[in-house]
C-alpha cells in the first residue's frame, strides 16, 4: 500500500480542513468522486495536470485505511 501520509495533508485554513493532496485545494473526496463517476486516471490527470498517478493512488489508500479503521472499532 502506498504511504498516503506523505501526500494527503490537512490544513484547517484550506477546504475547511478536509484532507487534500499536498498543497493543492483538491480534496480526497474530489478524486474519489471523479473515480466513482467513471473518470479514468488518464482523464483526471489530463484535467488536473498538477496531480500524479501516485496522488490518485494515495487517495484510494487513504479511503481504504479510513474504511479499515471504521470496521475495526
Strand and helix map with partners:
Blueprint (H helix, E strand, L loop, with lengths): L7 E2 L10 E2 L6 H9 L4 H7 L5 H20 L1
Can you describe what's shown?
The mean pLDDT is 93. By secondary structure, this protein is mainly alpha-helical. The chain has 3 helices and 2 strands, in the order E-E-H-H-H. Strands 1-2 form a two-stranded antiparallel sheet. The protein has helices spanning 28-36, 41-47, 53-72; strands at 8-9, 20-21. It is globular and about 30 Å long. Helix 1 (28-36) packs across helix 3.
Q: Measured on Cα atoms, how large is the radius of gyration? A: 12 Å
Order of helices and strands: EEHHH
The 3D shape can be described as: globular
Low-confidence stretches: none
Mean pLDDT: 93
**Could you say which structural class the secondary elements and strand pairing correspond to?**
mainly alpha
Strand order of the largest sheet: 1-2
Q: Biggest β-sheet, characterized? A: 2 strands, antiparallel
Binned, the helix content reads 40-55%
Q: What is the CA–CA distance across the termini?
A: 21 Å
Q: Estimate what percentage of residues fall within beta strands.
A: 5-15%
Number of helices: 3
Beta-strand segment tally: 2
Amino acid at each position: 500500500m502506498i504511504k498516503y501520509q506523505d501526500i494527503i495533508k490537512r490544513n484547517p485554513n484550506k477546504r475547511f480542513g478536509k484532507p487534500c493532496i499536498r498543497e493543492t485545494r483538491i480534496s480526497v473526496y474530489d478524486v474519489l468522486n471523479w473515480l466513482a463517476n467513471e473518470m479514468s486516471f488518464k482523464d483526471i490527470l489530463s484535467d488536473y495536470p498538477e496531480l500524479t498517478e501516485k496522488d490518485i493512488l494515495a487517495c484510494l489508500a487513504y479511503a481504504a485505511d479510513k474504511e479499515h479503521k471504521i470496521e475495526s472499532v
